[in-house]
Amino acid sequence: MTTVKTYLPSQATLEREWYIVDATDKRLGRLASEIAQVLRGKKKPEYTPHLDTGDFVIVINAEKVAVTGKKRTQKLYRRHSGRPGGMKTETFAKLQDRIPERILEQAVKGMLPKNSLGKQLFTKLKVYAGPTHPHDAQKPKELKVSTIPGEEN
User: Which terms in the GO cellular component ontology are assigned (predicted)?
Assistant: First the structure.
């Protein structure tokens, strides 16, 4: 009886790329799912579900991300202090005024695995509210993300 060996890429052979995404007028959920796939490495030939084979992603202009319908006023973000009665809620619009990076971070984090691998993958996401970022030395490539069917940006 022969056993089939699963190919496991070593961390030394993995090439980590840096990608940059401009979130201006991109749909939140569709953008987050594309970013999560790149962080996970799902489009790479050496993808392995239980290993970190993904790339780094830089998101700029996070304050200009778009949502459809009434989500701007009705979508709620909750956080809890851990104390009784410590639940704080705020709408999408208020959180976008206060900390625009957190909206995209929470959307991507929800699409990653809920374990230590997900925490490790999440550290490779860098989100910035404005158009500048401190990662020019990594020479990031532009990642093409179309969040509306038929639109290529």
Answer: cytosolic large ribosomal subunit
